[in-house]
Amino acid sequence: MLKRIAYRLAQMMVSLVIVTALVFTLLAAAGGDALTGLSDDPAVSEATLQAMRHTYGLDQPLPVRYVRWLADTVRGNLGESFFYHAPVATLIIPRLLSTALLAVIALGLAWTIALALGMLAARRPESWIDRL
């Protein structure tokens, strides 16, 4: 039983790394970075943008950025918000209660609708509701 749980956890970790690497790569392939929006501001020079890209490691190759991001995320360092100029983790924590409450309400609503439709479909076999 313990071996099976360990195997499943290992599978989950491999899947998580593959999915995050894929998303990271697709976002990079889309072009631009977190500082691209600043390039439209005439008050921000190209030299300033390049210095900021170097500071945040955005001038590094994609695999280096991914490994650094993954290592920081595992350590709980989610980076700094450009908008709020504060650590992202400190911005997320207060919002977790609201998110959890919303998720519980959505789950309850989904279960209620699914149960009602399931009972209706069971009462009318071979009907369009049953097929739906």
Q: Stretches where pLDDT falls below 50 for ≥5 residues?
A: none
- Overall 3D form: elongated
Helix content: 55-70%
Task: Please state roughly what percent of the residues sit in beta strands, choosing from under 5%, 5-15%, 15-25%, 25-35%, 35-45% or over 45%.
Answer: under 5%
Radius of gyration: 23 Å
Task: Tell me the number of structural domains.
Answer: 2
Order of helices and strands: HHHHHH
How would you sum up the major sheet?
none
Broad structural category: mainly alpha
Please summarize what this structure is.
With 132 residues, the protein is an all-alpha fold. It has six helices and no strands.
Written description of the protein model:
By secondary structure, the chain is mainly α. It has 2 domains: 77 residues, no CATH class; 48 residues. Helices cover 67% and strands 0% of the residues. The chain is built from 6 helices and no strands. The chain is elongated and about 70 Å long. The model has no long low-confidence stretch (mean pLDDT 90).
